Amino acid sequence: MSNKKRYAIVLDASKCIDCKACTIACKMENNVPKGPYAYRIWVAEKPFRGSFPVIKRGFLPSQCQQCSNPPCVQVCPTRASYQTEDGVVLIDYDKCILCKYCMTACPYDARYESENVHAIDKCTFCYHRLAEGREPACVETCPPKVRVFGDLNDPESEVSKLLVEHEHTVLKPEKGTKPKLYYIV
Ligand code: SF4
Ligand code: SF4
Fold first, then answer.
1. Which pLDDT does position 152 carry in this prediction?
2. Any idea which ligand is nearest the CA of 106?
3. pLDDT band at 2; cut points 50, 70, 90
4. Across residues 147-175, what is the average pLDDT?
């Protein structure tokens, strides 16, 4: 049996309370510049539901969708953007020439220009932590445990079981990017 992993995150956005602990943990873990314009992950507000006085707010945490078919990798002229054997899309900062083709190609607006690394940057599933058997910082930090991280190639993993047990969707499926962030509906 192959030991190759296929990493994914399953999110239950209904649990999100918009505390933004994930975005702060991510910034600290990954040398993301301070300020509101540099981020690897973010929390969007959904339209209000219901009517006054009973109005419900909802939130949609998001980040690089770790596409199985990533257009950012396909357009990168220097191969700075690449995909690992276990399906994680990474950026080699030394090879990045800041042409920004990848930013234009990404349907999820998941990339930003980092003044700290002088290259394009985005979520890496905290790849440096995975080698140590640790989870991504956002997964570990989130108080209500919105995100579950794991290996889709392991049928016993929590992510595999969640996808069997729950109806789920991906963002912008019409783009054909085959994201590995799954949202429970
Ligand atoms: Fe690339 Fe954007 Fe897909 Fe991430 S979400 S793998 S940056 S196309
Ligand atoms: Fe590749 Fe960097 Fe150009 Fe993006 S900006 S396409 S990572 S060289």
1. 97
2. 1
3. low
4. 97
Q: From ligand 1's centre to the CA of 8, what distance in Å?
A: 13
Dig out the tokens for 128 from the structure: 């440096």
Is the CB of 106 within 6 Å of ligand 2? no
CATH of 7-184, one of 3.30.70.1560, 3.30.70.20, 3.40.50.2300, 3.65.10.10: 3.30.70.20
Domain residue ranges in the chain: 7-184
How far apart, in whole angstroms, are the C-alpha atoms of residue 107 and residue 171? 10
Bridge partners of residue 55, in order along the sequence = 50
Provide the terminal-to-terminal Cα distance of the chain, rounded to the nearest Å.
Answer: 32
Nearest-angstrom CA–CA distance, 109 and 102: 10
Residue 55 DSSP class? E
- Tell me the pLDDT of the chain averaged across its residues: 94
